[in-house]
Amino acid sequence: MTVFEKFEPIGRIDWSKFADPMVSTGVKLMKQIEEFGFEAYIVGGAVRDIAMGDFDVHDIDIATNMPIDEIKDKFRTYEYGGGERHGTVIVHIGSFDYELTQFRTEGAYSDKRRPDSVEFVQSFEEDTKRRDFTINSMGIDSNGTFIDYHGGLSDIEHGILRTVGDPRERFDEDALRILRAIRFASRFGFDIDIDTLRA
Q: pTM to 2 decimals?
């Protein structure tokens, strides 16, 4: 039995079902950001895994339109690996660290791995267009609602792995995504979308 066959995707979750205090603290952080007048969503692999029924979350990344300078002013933060120039800082709360990244679009990838430049945007939808696969492009808000602009939930339901947008562009930007495609398809027992496979 594949991982995919064990789960049915869901469109909304109840945060109170998560026993790990890292999750509840992360939700409180999102609500604080909202109280300052900004948006915040849990993003990345945690969202994908939750959508597939795996509530054992160990790592929480948050995307927001709150500017980095304001995040640093309102929260205890630190930087790692030069992430701040790309809009990413770590927010430390209690014993937990949360990676916060400002909504952004990305410029050219001259080294086929990392963007040469980023531009900050206000739209979460615009931010999701830079992500690799539909199943990794979703967000969950502080109320537990999935935000899914690219059909990630449907692709989980049907066991399909596909890129966000043109697969040739996604792989040309970051060649590591080719290996990630194989890994995700193998891990979850997904079929690779034909256009993604050809690319």
A: 0.89
